[in-house]
Structure formats: C-alpha cells, structure tokens
Specification:
Elements (H helix, E strand, L loop, with lengths): L6 H12 L22 H15 L10 H27 L10 H36 L6 H7 L1 H17 L5 H13 L2 E2 L4 E2 L4 E3 L5 E2 L4 E2 L4 E3 L3 E3 L20 E2 L4 E2 L4 E3 L3 E2 L4 E2 L4 E2 L8 E2 L13
Parallel strand pairs: 1-4, 2-5, 3-6, 4-7, 5-8, 6-9, 7-10, 8-11, 9-12, 10-13, 12-14
Helix pairs in contact: 2-3, 2-7, 3-4, 4-6, 6-7
C-alpha cells in the first residue's frame, strides 16, 4: 500500500522545485559566493534618510547642538559612504557592462561613484532649497519653510527624486528606481528618477502625480494632485514589444502651472508661462502663455429627461 507523503516531505518537495535553477526564469544576478552584498530595501531607505539628515540636519533626526554637529555629520557621512558602496556594488551586478567584472573592479568603481554622490549633496540641497522656498511662497496655508520640510509629501517625494536622479546621472542601476518607488509607496507620488526637473519645483497636495522617465520640466513648474505627464503611445518592435529609450513624455516650459487631475500625454511641448486647467486631456502642443480651461457649465444647455 502506497504511503501518503508526510507534511514535511510535501514541503521539502516544494522547496526543491522553488530552489531549482532549471525552473527559475528570473534569477537575481548575485555573484554567488564571492562575498558581494545584495540589494536591500532597508539599506536603500537608510541611504535616503542619511542623505536628508546631512542636507537638512535636525529635521529628519534627533536635533543636536551646534558644537557637535560636525562630528555627528561626519559619522552620518561615513555610514552613508559604506551603504552606498555596498548597494552600488550590488546594483552593478545587474549592469551588462560590469556583471562579468572581477570583484575588485566592481568595488573600486562603486566606491568612486559613492564619493561622487556625496560630493553632489551641496548642489542637491541647493536645488531642494529652491523647491522648498517655491512651495512655501506658493501655498497660503504654509506657516513656514520648516513646516514644508517636515510635513509636505510633495517635498518628501521631490527629495527622494533629486537623490535618485543624481544616482541615475552617475549610471547606478536599480537603486534610483528603488528610491523613487519607496517614495511612491509612502506619498502616492510617482516620479521616475530619469526625468529632468528644474529648480523651484512644486507638487501641491500631490497624491496621484505621475511623471514619466523622459519628461523634461523647466524652472518653477507647479503641479497639483492627480497630474499625469505620461506617454501617449509606444513604438513597437517586430515582436510588438515597446521600443525602449525613445523620448515619449511631455516637455514642460518654465513657470507652468498644471491644475488637478489633468493628463498630458506624448512628446508635446507646453510653452513657458502656460496654464493647464483641471481635468483636461492634452495631447497637443500648448503655446507660451496659453491658458487651457474647461468650458464653463453655463455654456451647456441642460437636458431634461
């Protein structure tokens, strides 16, 4: 009489199937046994936290006296360098240019990239200062820039984007997207790290904002909740798969305001000083200074059943 497999045998059989490389279509490209770190969401979150603490001391960590501020920042910076080195090394395993390189080469390149990122923190803070000032000046409800830094989800998402964008600019794989998706999950604001955004950027309220990878935004752009800067369509290859790397998102000029729940699709140009009203669907160029608004309700004749 055939025996019924025990629970442990059934579980072991599943583990065997899950652990079989022959049955895995997607295998994490670790270097298997050479001691390299793996990508870690917790470490990436800590990289963002340390970067914010270094740029805005006292807002995102325990406040410290000025007499010991430099010492605390030195410790934070050392930890940031270590984590960046580890996570960039891990991410390079996903890059075809580096995936076959020896461990020493990977580590050396990752360390240099980490240092370059840290060197960029003053410039990133300068951009964020302009975003914070613009947010405060543009919102009558804002009590102070301190409130904006500590509380506003638009500023939080923008901080993560600017950190991620610098890492993207330094050709770091995977990690920039991890950073912006972590911000997306906590703020509801989805900004691709490859997007280009000028200084004085404001996201008011913010929930539901989407900015695509090839979008270009000028200076002093303001977006309200629910705005999408997306792609209208995709060029496909012979297998009907989207061709990657083609510019397909809007170009937004300087001093543009886009009100709530408007959607702008495709590689269209929105001219300087244009205003896009709420709940609009825009797939054409908008001239500098042009104002697009919904037709007024009193222009429509009511229809009674």
């Amino acid at each position: 009489m055939e025996q019924t497999p025990t629970i442990q045998q059934r579980v072991d059989e599943v583990i065997g199937r899950l652990g079989s490389l022959d049955d895995m279509r997607h295998v994490c490209p670790s270097r298997k046994g050479e001691g390299e770190p793996l990508l870690s969401n917790a470490s990436v979150e800590r990289i963002v936290a340390l970067s914010r603490q270094l740029m805005f001391p006292g807002f995102y960590d325990e406040s410290v006296e000025r007499s010991v501020l430099r010492s605390v920042m030195t410790l934070d910076c050392r930890e940031l360098l270590t984590l960046l080195h580890q996570q960039i090394t891990a991410s390079l395993c996903f890059d075809s240019q580096y995936c076959k390189a020896d461990v020493t080469t990977l580590s050396r390149h990752a360390k240099e990239t980490a240092v370059k990122f840290i060197e960029a923190l003053p410039a990133i803070r300068h951009l964020l200062d302009s975003d914070i000032d613009a947010t405060y000046l543009g919102d009558p409800a804002a009590v102070s820039t301190h409130e904006v830094i500590a509380c506003y989800p638009g500023v939080k998402a923008t901080m993560s984007y600017r950190i991620a964008h610098e890492l993207h600019r330094l050709d770091v794989p995977i990690v920039p997207r991890m950073i912006t998706e972590q911000a997306h999950s906590t703020t509801g604001i989805d900004i691709h790290p490859a997007a280009t955004i000028g200084e004085g950027f404001v996201i008011d309220h913010g929930t539901g904002v989407v900015i695509g990878a090839t979008a270009i935004l000028g200076k002093n752009v303001k977006l309200y909740q629910g705005v999408t800067l997306g792609a209208k369509s995709f060029v496909t290859d012979d297998s009907n798969n989207p061709v990657k790397g083609i510019p397909r998102h809007p170009i937004i000029g300087d001093n543009v305001v886009i009100y709530a729940n408007s959607t702008i699709l495709g590689r269209v140009n929105i001219g300087n000083n244009a205003i896009i009203g709420g709940n609009l669907w825009v797939t054409r160029d908008v001239a500098p200074g042009e104002k697009l608004i919904q037709a007024k309700a009193d222009n429509f004749r009511s229809v009674e059943n």
